[in-house]
Design brief:
Length: 341
C-alpha cells in the first residue's frame, strides 16, 4: 500500500497477522478538548493467503442492523478460521452512528454521498477519503451494509452496480448476490453524480468488487431483519472462502433471488407538497403506472382535498416511507423493475 495523505491514524497494523482491535483516530479539535480524536472502531483478522474483505456498517448512523451484525461477528471470528483478511468497521461515520442520525451532527453530511472525499475536508469527507483510498485500496471485496434507517423500511435487498462491459465481472457479481440468498437484488446505475459518490463507486475506483444491501429499517432492529443480515454476511464470507465458521451457514436456495432493475426512470416517488402521508401500497406490492400510491392530507386546512399520489412506473415496491409527516421533496416509495427472464 502506497503512502497516502490522510490525517486519520490507525492504531492497528493492517499488515500484521492475527486479530487486531483498535481505532481509526480522526483529529477533530473541539472546545472540550483541543487535541480530541474521533475514535472510529476497526478490527482486522488476518491469516493465510485468501482475499481481503472489507465489511462496513454505520455509514448512515440511524441504520442499526449492520452495526449489530458486525459487532456480533467480531466476537465470533477467530484468525485460525480465516483465509485472507477481514477488516470490520461497524460505525464508519462514527459521529452519525453515536448520534443515531443519517448524517453527521458535526458537518451535516451524508457519508454515502461524499466519496471520494477530501483529506483536508470536514470529518465526513476525511472519513470518505480514508475509506476509499486506504481501506478500499487494500480490499479485493467490500460489503457496505445498510437499511432504511429511521425514515423508511426496505425489503431485504442486495444492491449492486452491474458491469455492461465486463462479462466476467457481471457473472461474478451475479454468483455473489445469489450466494447471499436475499429474496431480492436491485441493480443500480453507476453513472451520474449521486452514483459516483456512493460506496460502491468508491470500491470500483480502487478495483474492488463492491456490493451493498438493505436490511429492514424503521429506526429499529427486528428479529427478521437482523437474521437476514447475519445469515447474508455469513454466506457472503463463506462464498468468498475467507472465513470458515464453526457452524457453516445454510446454503442459499438456487434461483431464490429475484433480480430487479433500478436504472430506469421514475422508480422513486417523492412528495410534491407537505402534509400527512397515507400510504396505500405496501412493501412487496407489484404496481402499475398510474396506480394510486397514497394520499397527502392537510389537517391544518381539513376542507382541502387530499392529493392523490400515483406511481409513474411499473414495478415492485422495494421501500416505503415510515414517518407520516412529510415535506415537499421527501421520498415516499422506491420501486424495482423486474428483470425479464
Amino acid at each position: 500500500m502506497s503512502e497516502l495523505l490522510s490525517s486519520i491514524e490507525p492504531t492497528i497494523d493492517f499488515s500484521a497477522l492475527g486479530e487486531h482491535k483498535g481505532f481509526l483516530n480522526l483529529p477533530h479539535s473541539i472546545h472540550r478538548s483541543g487535541s480530541h480524536n474521533i475514535p472510529i472502531p476497526v478490527v482486522s483478522f488476518k491469516n493465510g493467503t485468501g482475499p481481503t474483505v472489507l465489511l462496513t456498517a454505520g455509514v448512515h448512523g440511524d441504520e442499526y442492523e449492520g452495526q449489530v451484525t458486525l459487532t456480533k461477528l467480531v466476537k465470533e471470528i477467530t484468525p485460525d478460521r480465516v483465509n485472507g483478511q477481514i477488516i470490520i468497521v461497524p460505525m464508519t461515520n462514527f459521529p452519525a452512528a453515536k448520534a443515531g442520525l443519517r448524517t453527521s451532527p458535526i458537518d451535516d453530511l451524508n457519508l454515502n454521498r461524499e466519496f471520494p472525499g477530501d483529506p483536508f475536508g470536514t470529518p465526513t469527507r476525511q472519513i470518505a477519503h480514508y475509506v476509499e483510498t486506504v481501506l478500499m485500496e487494500m480490499a479485493d471485496y467490500a460489503f457496505d451494509i445498510h437499511s432504511g434507517g429511521s425514515s423508511s423500511h426496505y425489503l431485504t435487498t442486495i444492491l449492486f452496480q452491474g458491469s455492461k462491459t465486463d462479462e466476467n465481472k457481471q457473472a461474478e457479481l451475479t454468483k455473489m448476490v445469489e450466494a447471499i440468498g436475499a429474496p431480492y437484488a436491485l441493480e443500480l446505475p453507476s453513472g451520474g453524480v449521486k452514483g459516483s459518490r456512493a460506496s460502491m463507486s468508491a470500491a470500483a475506483r480502487q478495483g474492488t468488487i463492491g456490493i451493498s444491501a438493505e436490511f429492514g429499517g424503521s429506526g429499529t432492529v427486528t428479529p427478521e431483519s437482523l437474521e437476514s443480515c447475519e445469515v447474508g454476511v455469513r454466506r457472503y464470507l463463506s462464498h468468498l472462502g475467507v472465513w470458515t465458521p464453526e457452524t457453516p451457514p445454510s446454503v442459499a436456495k438456487p434461483g431464490g433471488t429475484e433480480f430487479f432493475n433500478g436504472t430506469i426512470k421514475n422508480l422513486d416517488v417523492h412528495a410534491e407538497l407537505s402534509g400527512l402521508f397515507e400510504p396505500v401500497a405496501k412493501l412487496g406490492d407489484r404496481v402499475e403506472i398510474g396506480q394510486t400510491a397514497g394520499f397527502l392530507h392537510h389537517p391544518d386546512t381539513p376542507w382541502q382535498v387530499a392529493e392523490e399520489i400515483k406511481f409513474e412506473a411499473t414495478g415492485v415496491v422495494m421501500s416505503k416511507r415510515i414517518p407520516g409527516l412529510v415535506e415537499r421533496g421527501d421520498g415516499l416509495f422506491k420501486l424495482g423493475a423486474p428483470v425479464a427472464n
